[in-house]
Amino acid sequence: MTNLTKTGAFAAVIAASFAFVGHAQAKPIAYPAKGQSAQQQQKDDGECYSWSKSNTGVDPAAVAAAPPPPSGPAVGGGERARGAVRGAAVGGIVDGGDGARTGAAVGVVAGGSRARQNQRAQQQSAQSQTQGAMDTFNRAYSACMEGKGYTIK
């Protein structure tokens, strides 16, 4: 491997790990405001984790382990084929057989663009749902820990 290849591979690994950190959200930090011991804090943490999980239906371990949405080429739900058909129809009306071929080619490109837009929208939706679930869990966890005398940040 050349140095350039090694550097590129290292940069890709670093970028991927930062992307993963953005998906996995750490639980809030609890400070023992009433002088709770480390053992008591660990016990309270476990109880609040379990309580939050059962009351919200969100399991942070499952959320963190969930695979990210696919990010490969957008081949999707037939957008390219529909674009080709539309382009061929319009091109055929305007300029006969040559127009149909040109229109089909343009339609495939336009359909591919729609497929990529749809894929990005699905990825953003999945990310928003994950973030919302973790926010709900963290609010429940924070409320539980505050009820046990901890300051939460």
**Residues in helix, %:** over 70%
Are there runs of 5+ residues with pLDDT below 50, and where?
Answer: 3-24
The protein's oligomeric status is: single chain
Largest sheet: 2 strands, antiparallel
What is the CA-atom radius of gyration, in angstroms? 25 Å
What overall form do the CA principal axes indicate?
A: rod-shaped
Strands ordered across the widest β-sheet: 1-2
Could you say which structural class the secondary elements and strand pairing correspond to?
mainly alpha
Helical stretch tally: 4
- Beta-strand share of residues: under 5%
How many distinct beta strands?
Answer: 2
Ends: how far apart? Answer: 45 Å
Mean pLDDT: 75
The succession of helices and strands, N to C, reads HEHHHE
Compact description:
With 153 residues, the chain is mainly alpha-helical.
Descriptive overview:
The structure is a single chain. The chain is mostly helical. 75% of the residues lie in helices and 3% in strands. It is built from four helices and two strands, in the order αβαααβ. The protein has helices spanning 3-23, 38-56, 60-65, 79-147; strands spanning 30-31, 151-152. The protein has a two-stranded antiparallel ribbon. α2 crosses α4 (79-147). The chain is rod-shaped. 16% of the residues are buried. Residues 3-24 have low confidence and may be disordered.
Task: Itemize the secondary structure elements and their pairings.
Layout: H1 3-23, E1 30-31, H2 38-56, H3 60-65, H4 79-147, E2 151-152
Helix pairs in contact: 2-4
Key words describing this protein structure:
single chain, mainly alpha, 4 helices, 2 strands, 3% strand, rod-shaped, disordered N terminus
